[in-house]
Amino acid sequence: MEEMEEKVPASSVFLLGVGECGGNLLGEYINAERERGRMTRVSGYLLLNTNQMDVIKARERYHIPPENTLIFGDTPMGVGGRFMEAYSLVDTWWDTIADQISSLGGDVANTFIILTSTGGGTGCGATPALIRQIKETFGKTRRVYVYVAAVLPFEGQSSEALNTTWLLYKLMQEPTSSKEIADLVILLSNRTMLRRRLQHDRRLVMDIIGASLGVDTSDYQQIEKVLKYTGEVSSKALEKTFIDIVNPLIVQTLIKMLELSTYAPDKNIFPTIDFADLANRLDIITVPALFTDIPYEALKDERGNVDMDSLSAFLEEVVNVTVRAYSLVDIGDEPSASSAFYILSGPQQFTDVHLDIPIKRALGSYLAEGASITPVFVQYKQRNMPMDLLILLGLPKLEEIREIMREAYQLISLHSGSKVKERWFLKSKGVSREVFIDALRELMELFDVEESEIELSGT
Ligand SMILES: Nc1nc2c(ncn2[C@@H]2O[C@H](COP(=O)(O)OP(=O)(O)O)[C@@H](O)[C@H]2O)c(=O)[nH]1
Ligand SMILES: [Mg+2]
User: Fold this and answer.
1) Residue numbers of the domain that contains 271
2) Three-class SS state of 348
3) What does the pLDDT look like over 97-113, one tens digit per residue?
4) 9-64 pLDDT per residue, tens
5) Whole-structure pTM over 0.85, yes or no?
6) Does the Cβ of 430 fall within 6 Å of ligand 1?
7) 384 bridge partner residues
8) What total number of domains does the chain contain?
């Protein structure tokens, strides 16, 4: 009987957690899967890092078997912020990395998801090289997709703006000029996620901040200082606490997306769509927004029926709340996204395809004219399944990216002016100042930032 229940994976997904952030997210994800009793949504996973200590910590904390981890490079301390070293190390170590991916099930995967932060060293640098190598090695005989879940820094971490700029530029280049671009970038922002959790679970977050940082949480100004990294608490302690607050949001979102990668007897996906199709339907950069446990029970009558018209009207409001209050990168009031994809999941009698009309109507206000919307309904036979809505907006205008670009510009200016000053770039990043200027210029174009806003010509 147990065998009969076994789920058939539609697309076979391999997870790669790279660097400290990527490793933590991978560990959190694996643990969430374990709680459900079995790994159903991914066919295999590997944690990669140049920093030995980070790997040991992740192994212990998340009980990751050693064969699912790999330390590449030979400086136990890792590359620090010098992302270019991690980039080169991937190429040097590729045979070893590829063998391990293969032996863990990656040889049959058609979608790879790289989990990483954008502002660190290892994950930031390794990611573009991994994309190229994965496509060359595993994509030789079949179409292989590489998705990147990329985590933007917290508010006070402006020193990470340069690495972030470089990585985003790498991931979004023209397909004709680079093999290092992602098929899909799922953008997640630490600063937005922290604000979101503070908004929606204020009590819980305050308790965590109070207990682990010893901050007086009745003092509003103290809290603001903490969020901006300007208070007395060490930034390392802040990062650690904040990470615990935001990581569950990321894992929840990943799990929702991966619902598309498995078919099951108790579940129907309509229209039939593959996890790999996400990349075909969306722009390269996408921002997720997730509303879990939609409280539609309030609409039920005495017999437990829900009137479809009321549900439609209700869901329009749910869409508004999802986009405005739950997106994992702040998208402002007018994101003008150029594509959208949504997954509505829940009990089959209420997760009705007729809801496509109200959902599309509501989504329209957040899209540019002519933008496409792809709907998916995940219908469960069980009556007690919660109803969830995941919306992915493709290429929305993002004020936060502009902010990061301005921070990058400030860092470039700070270290410019003389040959001695400019040596800083090579020393601490592993690339020259010009590389960042080029990256910044390209990103400005992609995100419609005016030349007058950031005057690169002056640098
Ligand atoms: N959301 C989240 N962000 C993290 C986590 N660990 C580190 N970060 C963020 O990642 C950035 C630092 O990069 P890190 O992953 O430590 O660098 P790497 O190990 O060199 O790839 C900072 O912006 C941190 O806020 C994590 O577990 N979750
Ligand atoms: Mg770190």
Assistant:
1) 264-397
2) coil
3) 999 999 999 999 999 99
4) 467 999 999 999 999 999 999 999 887 766 678 889 999 999 999 999 999 999 99
5) yes
6) no
7) none
8) 3
